[in-house]
Each structure stands twice: as structure tokens, then as C-alpha cells.
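Hi there,

I know you've been waiting on this one. I reran it after we fixed the sequence typo, so this is the corrected version. Both the input and the resulting structure follow.
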Amino acid sequence: MLYFSGFSLQNEVSLFPFWLKNCKAFCVVGFSYGAIKALEYTLESKKRVDRLLLLSPAFFNDVNIKFKQKQITQFRRNKKAYLRQFLRNIKGKCDINIYKYYKEGTMQELEELLFYEWQKEKLLKILKTGITIEVVLGGKDNIINLQGAINFFSDITTTYLVKKANHILCEVRDD
């Protein structure tokens, strides 16, 4: 298995044992920002890939430019505060110590995450090679527009919605 980490994270692969239990040698997995990297790797790779698993893909196709520019401005203004809030947002009301997976993200990574354009043509190109594509989304994800992601991915890929899960696919407490 080849795994790509989310923005400002490292080694968080251990958060997803349920989704990774059937990932074998020829499986490519990406979480959030890492889903972008996993998709692009799969498109360009000459190595064998049987399955592409996208966990909470960073989907911002439907977000306006003002929102994206505001994120960039806040990151530039106070990187540490921005990243702290980002980690709180992906964790939500979940009892996981997300900070042990922290790795300081860069402006380049944030810009790539926000401005990446998911294209159905890329997914179809991968599917034509016989690779299975699965997408897992959390119903309580407050990072992306969930409905936009569902609309984009569900007619092309096998898409799973975990109704009570947040961005890191952790079940959220009801308070």
C-alpha cells in the first residue's frame, strides 16, 4: 500500500484501520490533501495499481475565490494560529489526539489544496485502466462542502458516506 498524508499531517494512516484493512500491495490511498496526491500519482504511475482509495478528499471545486483568498491571507498573517485552528476543525468533537500527527504545512501545499480542480475526466481515465476508485466521506465533515463532493464523486466512483463521521472519519459525539 502507498499512502499520502493530509495537509499539515504525517503518519495519520493509523487513524483509518477500518478503511485500510483490505488494502493490499497495489492499493494507493490518500487522505484529504493526500487524496489529490494519490489521484495524481495513480494517473502518472507506471507501477501496478488495483485500487485507489480517497478518504475525505480535499474537494474545493465549488468554493468561491474569496473564500480561498481569505484562507491564504489568514495563513500568511499567522501560520501557527491558522494551523492550530485547522487541526481543531478536522478533529471536531472527536476524542483523538490529532496533534501527535502534526507536521507544519506550507503555503504551496495550502494553495494546491484550495485551488486543485478535481476533473471527472481524470477519474474516468483511471477507471478505464481497470483500477477501482472508492471515496469515503464523513457526513459531519465541516472542512468541505459535503453535498458538492457527493454530487461530484458518487456518479463515477463507489462512494461511501459515514453519516456521523467528521473529516478524519471519526464518529462525532452528539452534544
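Quick highlight: The chain has a mean pLDDT of 95.

Best,
R. S.
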